[in-house]
Write a structure and sequence with these properties.
By secondary structure, this protein is α+β, with helices and mostly antiparallel strands. It has one domain. It has one helix at 47-61; strands at residues 27-33, 36-41, 65-70, 73-78, 81-85, 93-95.
Length: 106
């Protein structure tokens, strides 16, 4: 069981629908350390294009990453695993513009 003061990017650990979440789709959530999450809004594009960006970002920094495409649809990437799920990361401390993406987007 995950301690109540820590939320990890994993599809089975984001259960509480009362926790806050960012709702500008599509975006990446990268777990920097437990409870600190970097949010990066992606440029408009298809789910396939966003998924490619997410995979490239994960390869670039090797940190657990989640592509969120809707309130109930996300792709979790962590150490060779990729899993689509109906859960999204919630809670923690969100930050932006602190973690470089694998490339700059307009």
């Amino acid at each position: 069981m995950v301690p109540s003061n820590k939320i990890v990017i994993h599809p089975n650990s984001v259960q509480d629908s009362d926790l806050p979440f960012f709702d500008g789709y599509a975006y990446l959530v990268t777990r920097v350390v437990p409870t600190l999450y970097h949010i990066a809004v992606l440029p408009p594009g298809s789910i396939a294009e966003s998924s490619d960006i997410a995979h490239r970002q994960f390869q670039a920094n090797k940190l657990p990453t989640c592509l969120v495409v809707a309130q109930d649809r996300s792709l979790f990437l962590d150490h060779g695993k990729a899993e689509w799920t109906n859960c999204i990361p919630r809670g923690g401390i969100p930050v932006a513009n602190r973690l470089a993406l694998y490339k700059e987007f307009p």
